[in-house]
Amino acid sequence: MSKFTFPVDTESEAFCLEIAKTMAFYFGLSLDDAIDRINKHWQHTTFAAGELLFHETTEYWARWIFLGNETWHLPSYWIQNQLRIERKLDQIQAHLGIAPPPLSELLQDLVRQGK
After folding, report:
1. Looking at residues 64-90, what average pLDDT do you find?
2. How many CB atoms lie within 10 A of CB 66?
3. pTM higher than 0.70 for the full model?
4. What is the share, in percent, of the chain residues with pLDDT greater than 90?
5. What does the pLDDT read at residue 19?
6. With contact defined as beta carbons under 8 Å apart, do 16 and 4 qualify?
7. DSSP letters of the chain?
8. In whole angstroms, what is the distance from residue 77 CA to residue 80 CA?
9. Residue 62: Cβ-neighbour burial (10 angstroms; 0-12, 13-18, 19+)
10. Stretch 92-115: mean pLDDT
């Protein structure tokens, strides 16, 4: 049984799984979280071999689905560096017992939208 909630054939399912693995690698998500994001993004879509989906790389789709259309073009090394810095800062704050500042309403809305 497929982990994807939209109809896929064998080839597109394998491709979507690679997108999920790429997203998990770049953005520190679990594989299940990455699959959930893909399911939400393509919930009303059907893919089959030869579809436009395959005209882009798995990295392209991972970044597009996670970041949206405004920042997908950022180089992967920049994204990885930013995430590494944020994780280190979270670890330092946790070690020192410092609570992170509350998210702004705009950020809370983006989080609720899965962006």
Report:
1. 71
2. 23
3. no
4. 17
5. 94
6. yes
7. --S-SS-B-HHHHHHHHHHHHHHHHHH---HHHHHHHHHHHTTT--B-TTSGGGGS-HHHHHHHHHH-TTTTTS-HHHHHHHHHHHHHHHHHHHHHTPPPPPPPHHHHHHHHTT-
8. 5
9. buried
10. 75
